[in-house]
Amino acid sequence: MNTTLWTVDSTGDLSTNYPQITQAAQLLQHNETVAFPTETVYGLGANAKSTDAVAKIYEAKGRPSDNPLIVHIADTEQLKEFAKIDSAQAETLMEQFWPGPLTLVLPCKEGVLSTRVTAGLDTVAVRMPDHPVALELIKRAGVPVAAPSANISGKPSPTKAEHVVHDLNGRIAGIVDGGPTGVGVESTVVSCTGGIPVILRPGGVTKEQLEQAVGPVMIDQGITDEKKAPISPGMKYTHYAPEAPLAIVKGSSEDIQRLIEQYQKDGMKVGVLTTEERAGAYQADAVRICGTRDRLETVAAGLYDALRSFDGEDLGFIFAESFPEEGVGRAIMNRLLKAAGHRVIEA
Ligand code: TXA
Ligand code: MG
């Protein structure tokens, strides 16, 4: 398949002209797949009402069919067609955080969306992305857009168009390049089907922010306790992993440097995932900086690009620094733990 690549300067006034966005929207209307930028990561979009279209997403990504998709909308009117809002918390969260990196799992109305979107569940995950290109594309397509992250299943999510090209060129109809995404980790997924809201996946909106808006919020035990099954089907899969095995080290940079040297002695090339503050402490075969510890948002923004950049370095092992599990640090550690297959070294 020939993949069309469009470039859009997302700082312009997108409501006028921009034939690239119209062309991409037309492909969505014709039930083809198009990758586009959101404020979190690039998504791989398709018409959520068409089983034909949605099947192409699963096929292109190699995604297990029991893992449901997030439906992206451009305005809340669109939502009422296929989802029910029967909790006051859902209303408040939508008002406060949309457009933005928050996905709400709501009761689904029957017969509107393809059942492949929800993988047969009676709930649907919905979000309104905070990105001008995404919003304009969905508006012009005139349909709700199902979109998982635009990576091959299991790989780190794409935060730049070149990551999408690397994974999916020739497998999808088009890619809209709107520059690097801002948040860098995916949206927070919150179940809002009555009772206390439950975080099914930590992400761009923090637990602290959610609680400020609606009071107590729980975290699904299945995402922190390896022995429990997560509620969200997608959270059980290994994800975000670079080619070389990775371990998180809870310890100082000296501890990590010692580990690097130990592994190098065995003739292995070793990489380290670090931050501005500590990068100077390492002598490794590949040193990658994902941001500064002072501002964990920068670590989130740079994490996937850094993880991807280890590939092709022929490394035998990668050590990653550990981050505090507060604010967006919860999402960072959740993704790192998955990338590490839960290997943690207490140094
Ligand atoms: O930031 C994001 O959320 C990005 C951008 C493209 O919007 N999308 C994204 O989609 O991360 P994906 O498919 O990679 O992750 C969707 C997650 C999966 O863990 C899936 O299992 C969960 O949402 N999910 C979808 N529908 C669900 C439902 N009805 N109930 C529980 N979990 C659901
Ligand atoms: Mg994904």
Keywords:
DHBP synthase, five-stranded parallel β-sheet, DHBP_synth_RibB-like_a/b_dom, Rossmann fold, 16 strands, 347 residues, nucleotidyltransferase, alpha/beta, ATP binding, L-threonylcarbamoyladenylate synthase, binds threonylcarbamoyladenylate, single chain, tRNA processing
List the helices and strands and how they pair.
Blueprint: E1 4-7, H1 19-29, E2 34-36, E3 43-47, H2 51-61, E4 70-72, H3 76-80, H4 88-97, E5 102-107, H5 115-118, E6 123-127, H6 132-141, E7 145-146, H7 161-168, E8 174-177, E9 188-191, E10 198-201, H8 207-214, E11 218-219, E12 246-250, H9 253-265, E13 270-274, E14 286-289, H10 296-309, E15 317-321, H11 329-339, E16 344-346
Parallel strand pairs: 1-8, 2-8, 4-6, 5-9, 10-11, 12-15, 12-16, 13-14, 13-15
Antiparallel strand pairs: 2-3, 3-7, 4-7, 5-6, 9-10
Magnesium ion binds next to loops.
The main pleated sheet reads as:
11 strands, mixed
Structure ligands: threonylcarbamoyladenylate, magnesium ion
Nearest-angstrom radius of gyration?
A: 20 Å
Helix content: 25-40%
Low-confidence stretches: none
Head-to-tail CA distance between termini: 49 Å
Give the tally of β-strands.
16
Number of helices: 11
Task: Report on the architecture of this protein.
It is a single chain. Helices cover 30% and strands 18% of the residues. It has helices at residues 19-29, 51-61, 76-80, 88-97, 115-118, 132-141, 161-168, 207-214, 253-265, 296-309, 329-339, and strands at residues 4-7, 34-36, 43-47, 70-72, 102-107, 123-127, 145-146, 174-177, 188-191, 198-201, 218-219, 246-250, 270-274, 286-289, 317-321, 344-346. The mean pLDDT is 96. The protein is an alpha/beta fold. It has 11 helices and 16 strands. An 11-stranded mixed β-sheet has the order 1-8-2-3-7-4-6-5-9-10-11, sandwiched between helices. A 5-stranded parallel β-sheet has the order 14-13-15-12-16, sandwiched between helices. Helix 8 links the parallel strand 10 (198-201) and strand 11 (218-219). It has 2 domains: 4-236, DHBP synthase (Alpha-Beta Complex), CATH 3.90.870.10; 246-346, Rossmann fold (3-Layer(aba) Sandwich), CATH 3.40.50.
